[in-house]
User: Which sequence fits this backbone?
């Protein structure tokens, strides 16, 4: 582990420097992190850096997480992390370092501002200036997947109340402290009524606490289409993890180069700042990478650690360098008055402009939002077991009528078969002959004439499945919460 100390421009500071954990990354990572550090040093930001061992070298040394064990202690000791892009080696077994860091360190909020620099950087959508706030830990990114039968795989989508509340509050606090006027929440709650429905309802609930901020709820498909076609109409977009991931790339694409978008990953105690792009191995070591995305991440970092004046200094110098015609290859279009420069010359152009302000490009002063405090639920809902979904593997016998009759005949003190579905569609009783059948059936048993259901009843039922030679692959208990059902109905139920 090595320490990179800053230059003499910060001498004479009366406070101790803040130490930043630094991952230089792979591919273009080292070039662009060096560029960022030289700009930060020249800005006089009172920082020093502690390098963390992570990335391709660590992966190839046999550590599938891509990060050395000692790195976690360093990041805990110096909880602000500046990270260059990492190359994830191809092949199974290597875990994405980004996902590991985000989830291990509880970095629940992913913030990605995306703006255009028109007329200086060509764009189809002049005047775009939006921020994506993406939930960063939950959803299908919990990574809980199973192959259940020869034909069927599943991935669990987990949306939790506290996780949603945190990200929704973060989005509103961010909007409030940064003068943003409107939040569009994008989900698919017309289909996923329980998971996305929870996200949408927490959004509506918390919106009442921020009456000055306009809100809009959009279905993700039409929301993504509008973002691609008309990004100017958005201010803040809030979304669960998977949709937020996709929306962030659309936003980066429609606003210009991926080399221009930075992001922050915020947790309660630790925060990580990075470019949205990858390690670009195709241009590594050629002095042509655009360092702007990582510089923008560093600007977010400066705001986060309480150095907003340094953030403004750096951001303004970047905008002035663009106005003065400096372009890296990815954003160069041969316009009169512009020149194509390499990473080092672009960096120097920014350093030379520290202290200057852009003349035309819009400047938005960033503010750090208030820390999020979760509200305790006022009352604990009454949770009642009312049935069970039993999932079975039936590769050889796919006749719903035979299966249904067998289960109708099962004796249980309080549970009765209600229906059987295949991929969510009812196939018994009264199934339709056109419905395609896989080898994976969900058999729903509910309380017989309102009798109380116990866990023992469920276990007895599973024993009956076993004695009938039906292979149970999993069960999901059916609950009500304060009398409201906590499970979706089958299509056709
Ligand atoms: P990429 O973002 O590295 O590159 C996509 C394209 O954009 C390439 O043509 C590249 O040259 C260009 N590009 C990217 N950044 C640029 C910049 N700053 N300046 C100019 N041009 C730039 O995506 P990829 O090729 O799909 O992935 C390469 C590697 O990066 C993979 O190993 C992938 O796993 C990894 N990756 C890492 C991160 C991360 O660490 N945050 C994110 C995405 C991909």
Assistant:
């Amino acid at each position: 582990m090595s320490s990179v100390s800053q230059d003499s421009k910060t001498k004479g500071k009366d406070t101790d420097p803040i130490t930043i954990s630094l991952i230089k990354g792979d591919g273009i990572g080292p070039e662009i992190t060096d560029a960022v550090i030289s700009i930060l040093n020249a800005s006089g930001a009172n920082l020093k850096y502690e390098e963390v061992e992570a990335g391709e070298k660590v992966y190839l040394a046999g550590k599938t997480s891509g990060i050395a064990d000692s790195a976690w202690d360093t990041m805990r000791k110096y909880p602000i992390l500046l990270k260059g892009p990492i190359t994830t080696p191809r092949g199974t077994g290597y875990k994405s370092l980004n996902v590991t860091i985000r989830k291990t360190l509880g970095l629940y909020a992913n913030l990605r501002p995306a703006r255009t620099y028109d007329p200086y950087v060509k764009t189809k959508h002049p005047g775009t200036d939006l921020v994506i706030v993406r939930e960063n830990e939950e959803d299908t990114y919990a990574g809980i997947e199973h192959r259940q039968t020869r034909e069927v795989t599943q991935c669990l989508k987990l949306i939790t109340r506290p996780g949603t509340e945190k990200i929704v509050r973060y989005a509103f606090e961010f909007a409030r402290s940064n003068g943003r006027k409107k939040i569009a929440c994008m989900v698919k709650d017309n289909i996923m009524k329980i998971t996305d429905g929870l996200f949408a309802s927490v959004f509506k609930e918390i919106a009442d606490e921020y009456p000055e901020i306009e809100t809009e709820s959009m279905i993700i498909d039409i929301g993504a289409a509008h973002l691609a076609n008309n990004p100017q109409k958005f201010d803040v977009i809030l979304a669960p993890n998977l949709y937020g991931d996709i929306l962030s790339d659309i936003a980066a694409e429609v606003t210009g180069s991926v080399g221009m978008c930075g992001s922050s990953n915020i947790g309660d105690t630790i925060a990580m700042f990075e470019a949205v792009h990858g390690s670009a191995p195709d241009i590594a070591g050629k002095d042509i990478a655009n360092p702007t995305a990582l510089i923008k991440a560093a600007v977010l970092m400066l705001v986060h650690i309480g150095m907003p004046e340094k953030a403004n200094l750096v951001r303004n110098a970047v905008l002035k360098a663009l106005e003065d015609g400096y372009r890296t290859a990815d954003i160069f279009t041969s316009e009169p008055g512009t020149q194509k420069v390499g990473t080092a010359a672009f960096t120097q152009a920014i350093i030379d402009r520290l202290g200057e302000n852009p003349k035309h490009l819009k400047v938005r002063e960033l503010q750090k939002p208030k820390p999020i405090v979760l509200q305790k639920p006022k009352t604990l809902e009454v949770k009642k077991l009312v049935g069970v979904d039993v999932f079975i593997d039936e590769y050889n016998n796919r006749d719903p009528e035979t299966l249904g009759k067998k289960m109708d005949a099962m004796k249980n003190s309080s549970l009765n078969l209600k229906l059987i579905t295949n991929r969510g569609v009812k196939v018994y009783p009264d199934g339709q002959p056109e419905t395609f059948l896989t080898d994976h059936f969900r058999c729903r048993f509910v309380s017989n004439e309102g009798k109380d259901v116990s866990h023992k009843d469920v276990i007895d039922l599973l024993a009956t499945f076993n004695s009938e030679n039906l292979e149970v692959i999993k069960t999901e208990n059916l609950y009500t919460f304060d009398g409201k059902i906590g499970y979706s109905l089958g299509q056709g139920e």
In short: The CA atoms of residues 88 and 96 lie 6 Å apart.
